[in-house]
Amino acid sequence: MDIMEPNETVKTEDIKFDENGLIPAIVQDVRTKRVLTLAYMNRESLEKTLETGETVFWSRSRQELWHKGDTSGNYQHVVSIIADCDRDALTVLVDPDGPACHLGTESCFEYPLAGAPDSGGAAFSLETLYELLEGRKREMPEGSYTSYLFDKGIDKILKKVGEESTEVIIAAKDDDKGESIYEIADLAYHVLVMMVELGIRVEDVRSELARRHIIDHKVKQEYQTVDTGEK
User: Fold this and answer.
1) Could you report the per-residue pLDDT of 1-33, keeping only the tens digit for each?
2) Is 44 in contact with 21 (CB distance < 8 Å)?
3) What share of the chain is helix, strand, coil (3-state, %, to 5)?
4) What is the distance between the alpha carbons of residues 41 and 50, in angstroms, rounded to a whole number?
5) Model-level pTM?
6) Which one of 20, 115, 136, 208 is least enclosed by Cβ atoms within 10 Å?
7) Residue 50 CA: distances (Å) to CA of 21, 42, 44, 70, 203
8) Cα–Cα distance measured from residue 56 to residue 46, given in angstroms and rounded to the nearest whole number
9) Which domains does the chain have, with CATH numbers?
10) How far does Cα 34 stand from its chain's mean position?
């Protein structure tokens, strides 16, 4: 068996299908990292997935291709597909349009067998918090502090961002780690509220940080070239 180095790109001809011509595909939300479903692909559905940029599976019960979302509208937009070390299983990272399960739940995996499930089913992330805040702005439930901020508008939100920034500075100046963490969390929450108000997504900020990381890496290489005299 050929040993592949981590992160080495594989080709479709490297993928190993089982005796029925199938390969398991673990579908995962690219933002929350939550496992959404386990489905199967054959060579044709894998090729169509790569071609369309949306998940296409092989239905073992109906014995036909199954383009996820054609019936429900809940398409899954493929971000990346990663093969395991044996190349006989796939992880498909997607940006879903809606619930993955035919029962209407976010994930097909909702039924604990052992251990305590996460609260609400999904692991915490900035993306899930952002989505919660979006829901607050859309629904504006009474008694919600977040709804209050959206109701008052950008000036009130920015005032709170300024106040929480000051609290972070004070806590850090006092060398109080616990209080600094608490105030940073407050600031992060209010910044996310501001982002929702302005239509700035978490992915927008992540992309900008990634761009700066690439630039910083290039600048570092340039400095190293100057120091060594290389051209």
Assistant:
1) 454 455 678 888 999 999 999 999 999 998 888
2) no
3) 45, 15, 40
4) 12
5) 0.56
6) 115
7) 18, 12, 10, 17, 23
8) 7
9) 12-96 (3.10.20.810), 126-200 (1.10.287.1080)
10) 8
